[in-house]
Amino acid sequence: MELKITKIGNSLGVILPKELLTRLRLDKGDPLFITETPNGYRIAPYDPVFAEQMEQARELMKTRRNVLHELSK
């Protein structure tokens, strides 16, 4: 899919086709993340680095449930 950069107000932007927005489950105001990869750039509706950090946090909270419970008192 080829997209062109266009002038939007005083900025430049890319208009995403409705079909792409539907496939990505995106709507106006939703965040979109661009990640550099060895093969170019990846555009996704979530940040893979943040997702990995959250998974690690969930695992830590699961294994240290008692400690967190005591700290919350």
UniProtKB/TrEMBL annotation:
Q: GO molecular function terms here? A: DNA binding
Q: What InterPro entries does UniProt report for this protein, alphabetically?
A: Doc_partner (IPR013432), SpoVT-AbrB_dom (IPR007159), SpoVT-AbrB_sf (IPR037914)
Q: Per its UniProt record, what SUPFAM superfamilies does this chain match? A: AbrB/MazE/MraZ-like
Domain SpoVT-AbrB: residue ranges = 6-51
Task: Tell me one Pfam family matched here.
Answer: MazE_antitoxin
Q: Which domain of life is it from?
A: Bacteria
Protein name as catalogued: Transcriptional regulator
**Source organism of this protein record:** Asticcacaulis benevestitus DSM 16100 = ATCC BAA-896
Taxonomic lineage from the root = Bacteria, Pseudomonadati, Pseudomonadota, Alphaproteobacteria, Caulobacterales
